[in-house]
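[INFO] parsing input record for Ferroxidase fet3
[DEBUG] input buffer:
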Amino acid sequence: MDGPASVTQCGIPPGYSFTYEYVVQQAGTFWLHGHDHHQNSDGLRTPLIVYDKNKTPVDYDEELLLGFEDWFTESFNERAKLTLDPTKPFPPPHGYGFGLINGINGNYTRPLYFRPGLTYRLRLINMSSTMWFQLSLPGHTMRVVEVDGEYTEPQEVDGIDMSPAQRYSVLVTAHSANLFNYRYNATMYAPFIPPAAGLSPRVFIGDVLYQSGAPFVEASSSIGGGNFKWANDIELHALDKQPALPVDRSIKLVLGNNLYSTGQHLDHINNITYAQPITPSLYTALSMGEMAFDPRVYGQQPHAVILKHLEVVELVVHNPNTLPHPLHLHGHSFQITEYGPTDINVPANHTALPVVKNTGVPARRDTFVVPPYRYTKIRFRADNPGSWPLHCHMDIHFVLGMALTFIEAPDVLQRTLKIPEAMLDLCRVQGIKTWGNAAGNEGLNFTGLPPAPLFVASSP
Ligand SMILES: [Cu+2]
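[DEBUG] output buffer:
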């Protein structure tokens, strides 16, 4: 019931409907979105809040939601055409996105209404396809208590900085008197989009209203400057105090963008540029018997990595590029254990930042950033049999192939999982086989699957 097209199911065809039924196992701040190509970029997305069944482990009086989105005047396809054309300027005309907060132009979003003395849980969700968002409430203190659906020990910060797909909950206690009103500051930016007055970054100033008519307290300190403290996931600790897992297997992944034999510059992980199989990878895992352990049956471009049931996997993800990549792993929360400098293709004039680790009680989350010329290490236990994508959550990078597929415990899957007929029907009505290898054939016969573009090592 995870949703990604050609991974766990066939997409819902136009004019059809499908009901997702699943046991909710995790409370927290989530969102849902179309997961076929660039559907998220074109707006198929919405917040999804899961409340605790029992008492919430952090105390607050009320909660407020701020959902952040980027919005462009062109469709994804129109924008991609301009962005990927090396003869066109970057960003393309109108390429500076607009920012939406709670679904409307962020300049017109309803104020946050505070009552004196109450503690609010602000749920923050960045549903953008491309842009980062920062939030601060000058004159108030924030305490981080949740990251991507995982509670953390409360930690005081001045601001939150979210990549696409990341979420946070912060507690804010209102002042005890309602003599003044305040403002919040939401800044939309992307580390790779050049500044342009009023366009990048785009700043949205919203009201924090205690009493209408009361004077506003203007921000005295500069956001992001001096001692300003952003939330930093490597410094957070899981509330349940789960220690760093002992690693059974370490997997090195290198992110990149290179020239391929098609003449295009494509994104890749370990030189393989992702493309969807014909038969969803999960159905291949279920129907190929012993061969389900052979990564080749999933096809070359779906880039299957087979995980053994219950092994603790460490991913060491290197980013020898100038852009940060926000990577989302499906099916797991993972521990954030280390950031450090990559040793791959580093320009001579680059100043390496030091290694930072959290191998005591790390925070868990489901979307992590690999900054430029850094690596990030994460750990998780392969205790959720399935087929789970790892992919960049900037839509353009996902579309260009920065993704792979973890095939987790196919033996356990084959013993325990039965796909509902209504889900298989989504494939049948589209003439897609629900068994066999990536091409819907026996063994290693891939007739019908387009050939994988070849990696060309040296870019012109
Ligand atoms: Cu990316």
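[INFO] The chain has two domains: 58-235, 249-428.
[INFO] shutting down worker
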